[in-house]
Structure formats: structure tokens, C-alpha cells
Design goal:
By secondary structure, the protein is mainly beta. It has a single domain, classed as SH3 type barrels, CATH 2.30.30. The chain has two helices and seven strands, in the order ββββαβββα. The protein has helices spanning about 45-50, 90-95; strands at about 5, 10-15, 20-25, 30-40, 55-65, 70-80, 85-90. The strands form two sheets. The chain has a five-stranded antiparallel β-sheet with strand order 6-5-4-3-7. Strand 1 and strand 2 form a beta hairpin. The longest helix has 7 residues, at about 45-50. The radius of gyration is 17 Å and the shape is elongated. The termini are far apart. About 10% of the residues are buried.
Length: about 100
Amino acid sequence: MTTDYDDKGKFFTEIIPKENVPVIIQTATNRIEGLFHARYDNRLKDELNNQVDEQFMAITDAVVYDADGNELYASNFLALNRESIIWLIPQNEEDGENDQGEQE
């Protein structure tokens, strides 16, 4: 990793800060709950669309459920093929909350 500084002391690094967004992902056969890593101030849609050149996306603290809601797998890391995603929502929206945690 390299860190560069400009003449004003501002530093630049190869590390991109991201926030962990709890999400629910539906595939054709399973539901996945876990953490999606998005750049700060990026919408989930933008983050998904900006990485189209990558076939897999990382989900951490993943739990995979079958169609009946039974837990099949739990893992610290899951590489999910983007083509298998039917829909993805932030977990707080499942409960009818908006981004600020307030009821709609």
C-alpha cells in the first residue's frame, strides 16, 4: 500500500473507505442476509452498477436461508455471483424504516 501527500499535506491512499450496509438478497432459490460493502455516500444501486466488470461481490457475515426460511449456511465471507441476484434491499427497509431509522 502506498500513501502519497500533496504540498498541502492532504494524503491519498489506495484504500477506499466503505461502510457496511446490512442487506437482504434474494436469489432464485435462497435468501441471503449479510453485510454489503458500499462507498460512503453511494446508493446501493450505484454501487452495484459501478462494479459491473466484476462477476462476484463480497458479502460478509453472511447467512443463507432456504425457501422455507431454514438456515443452510453461515460464513464470515461469501462471494456472490451478481447474475444470481433477483433483488437486494437494505435490512432496515424490510421493517418499514427509512434510511434515518424513522417509521414511514
